[in-house]
Amino acid sequence: MRTVWKYTMRLNDRIDFELPQDSKLVSVAMIPDTNHELGFWFELETAAEIPTVNEVRRFAVVGTGHPIEDNLVHRCTVRDHEFVWHIYEEVIR
Q1: Measured between alpha carbons, how far is 70 from 59 in angstroms, rounded to an integer?
Q2: pLDDT band at 64; cut points 50, 70, 90
Q3: Order of strands, edge to edge, in the sheet holding 24-30?
Q4: Three-state SS letters, the chain
Q5: What is the C-alpha to C-alpha distance for residues 14 and 38, in angstroms, rounded to an integer?
Q6: How far apart are CA 58 and CA 91, in angstroms?
Q7: pLDDT of 47 over the 80 cut
Q8: Where residue 49 falls among pLDDT bands split at 50, 70, 90?
């Protein structure tokens, strides 16, 4: 069975999550009434009969007009009042 789980992290240049393999990023948004916290929602396989193998997934938060490294793939864009943040995932090629 699949379920959606929320992970929150303070806004930072790099954000790492240890997640089950094949997890799917479904949304990212600023968490209201916090000090620049991002919410990441992932769809995860949660069936007990399926063995879980975790992997570290690394995300980068890039401001508008800032350089983007070649190994980053765009996942979404979020607004934080007057700021706009672009969420990229580090991909090994």
Answers
A1: 13
A2: very high
A3: 2-10, 37-45, 24-30
A4: CEEEEEEEEECCCEEEEEEECCCEEEEEEECCCCCCEEEEEEEEECCCCCCCCEEEEEEEEEECCCCCCCCEEEEEEEEECCEEEEEEEECCC
A5: 12
A6: 8
A7: no
A8: low
